[in-house]
Amino acid sequence: MAKRSSRSTIILDWVNVTYRSAALWICGALILIIAGGFYWYHATQVAPRDRAVQAIEEATGLMSKAVALTSSDPRVLEARVNARETIEEAESAFASRDWDRARQAAMHSATLSRKAIDLVEGKNANSAEVRFLHIEGDVKVKRAGEFSWETAHDQMVLNVGDQLKTTSSGSAQLIYFDGTKSTVDSGSLLEIRQLFEDPTTKERKVSERLGWGSVQVSTRKQSGPGSEHEVSTEVASATTSEEGEMKVRYDKDQGVARFDAYDGKWGIKTQESKKALGSGQTVDAYGDGRISPTRDLPTAPRLLSPSDQKMFVFENPAEAEMTLRWEKVAGAREYRLTISERNLFTDPAYQGVIQGTSIAVEGLSVQSYYWKVETVMPDGGLGPPSAVRRFRVTGQSVRDSQDNTPPPLEITDFLLSGPMVIVNGLTEPGAGLWIDNEKIDVYEDGTFYAVVRLRKEGENIVEFLAQDAAGNEQVVKRRAYVETY
Q: Transmembrane segments in this chain: where (predicted)?
């Protein structure tokens, strides 16, 4: 048999392309680039804004209906006042482009208006409820008395006995009728145990039970005597009647619950003992009724750079590198950095433990990202998380390549008052502005106002950074001196 040649076969082929066809192809590519940029902006910016707009419009409509109803009942009058104050809070947050806080306040206002309407119409105004603020990934709900799980959605209303389950790729944020916000982490089970309000005494009692996993609860101060919010597990519970923040973790297999009080005063209780917990403290509770000695939590790391909502413009984002930095925390063993495209940090793009206080990140695709840092304590536990910041990665193809002019940045007033500086200035309307890496609101005419706390005694360098929509930046630095007393 003849031996087959091992030489490679090369095939040459071509097509004829007219100038008109080439022009059409170029136009089509440009359209795709613009459409991609529009989709990215809509998915990462407009959608959260639209949800806030929808919530504010609904709350405003309900408030108008509540005000139009005639009533001298003091409970109705109080609900109206509270609804109006809360809608003002939502509008203020919206003006600051804090879409999440605006939507949360609007939903709380809507709940207050519904209460006023129900009281006037003679309905049961005691029927409190729980609604979804955010849903990410796979989240299921099982109604009280039922056996099947259904997929959660934004319009769902939860009541006593309902259970919420998140998978490893899901998380959810709830808002209760009393203004409490609960964030249910991935791989958790939460049950609504009690929703009670006495319209006469204003006493409110809310109880949620963590079957396994973790939940972070942010409570509001309640006006009615005897009011409290409880988060319980099989082995222990935490209660408060004040404004506060608590992280509860429960390992069902080990029968151990951990209670981290980030803020406020909390009471921890088992069948055998009780313990008071203050801001910055943590304890473990066990199935035999024991509560561990109180330990101090480290402070939350302060993020340094990039500034909140900073936009990075790279010619080739996949090969670009950016550095994330944060302040050192006393007593920290390590730090856990989490980066995600979702604000509840479900299915993170990156999560890792870092020994230092900075890391160079590369290979991020064109997208908006949220990031936070938690302190890893000597015992391996996690301390309070930093504030959440956001940055955007984009390419030259979705920016105005003709705009290479930095935005104007003028500091018109820089008035020192003790350790504070009062600042007034002017930049380009629509530009982002940061002072010492803290995001500052810019009004529609480009003016801004801020009160800045200086970080140390002696000389301070205050840095102003303005960034326009094309990614151009302008930096101005001012010196300020704090007297040592």
A: 21-41
